[in-house]
């Protein structure tokens, strides 16, 4: 569950307004409210792309489909689009989330749609010898890294 913010959506909006007025420096506004400048800039980004709802506290994590994750990662890795443009296009809440997907993709892990409950691959283990482990790995590689299918098979 996401962490509750110190500031409500209305308070964040007021801070953004004061931040954007230009009467005080951005640093002094950030210090006044004990908030990092990058946090305020993130709030501005969320307001711009998600409306006032983007500033409200979330009581459950955002869900993304496996297809959306893969599309966003491929688009970034193609080098034609920046992280900021991708999170705006796909309505992803942060660059950190996209970076986590890229890291997972680069480690050759598969994406799952979030919020679907998923199934556990290994519920109980059993003893295997060296040759059987090699057979299991070869089967998994031959079947396009289908871990669930491999677990079912063996």
Automatic annotation (TrEMBL):
InterPro entries: InsJ-like_HTH, IS150/IS1296_orfA-like, Trp_repressor/repl_initiator, WH-like_DNA-bd_sf. Residues 12-58, 69-108 form the Insertion element IS150 protein InsJ-like helix-turn-helix domain. It comes from the Bacteria. Transmembrane segments: none annotated. SUPFAM superfamilies: TrpR-like (SSF48295). Belongs to the IS150/IS1296 orfA family. This is Trp operon repressor.
């Amino acid at each position: 569950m996401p962490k509750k913010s110190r500031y409500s959506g209305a308070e964040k909006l007021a801070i953004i307004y004061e931040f954007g007025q230009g009467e005080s420096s951005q640093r002094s506004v950030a210090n006044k409210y004990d908030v990092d400048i990058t946090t305020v800039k993130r709030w501005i980004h969320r307001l711009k792309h998600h409306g006032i709802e983007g500033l409200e506290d979330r009581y459950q994590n955002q869900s993304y489909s496996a297809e959306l994750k893969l599309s966003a990662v491929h688009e970034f890795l193609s080098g034609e689009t920046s992280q900021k443009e991708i999170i705006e296009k796909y309505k992803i809440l942060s660059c950190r989330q996209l970076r986590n997907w890229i890291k997972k993709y680069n480690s050759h892990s598969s994406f799952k749609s979030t919020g679907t409950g998923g199934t556990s691959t290994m519920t109980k283990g059993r003893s295997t010898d060296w040759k059987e482990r090699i057979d299991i790995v070869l089967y998994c590689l031959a079947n396009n890294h289908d871990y669930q299918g491999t677990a079912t098979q063996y």
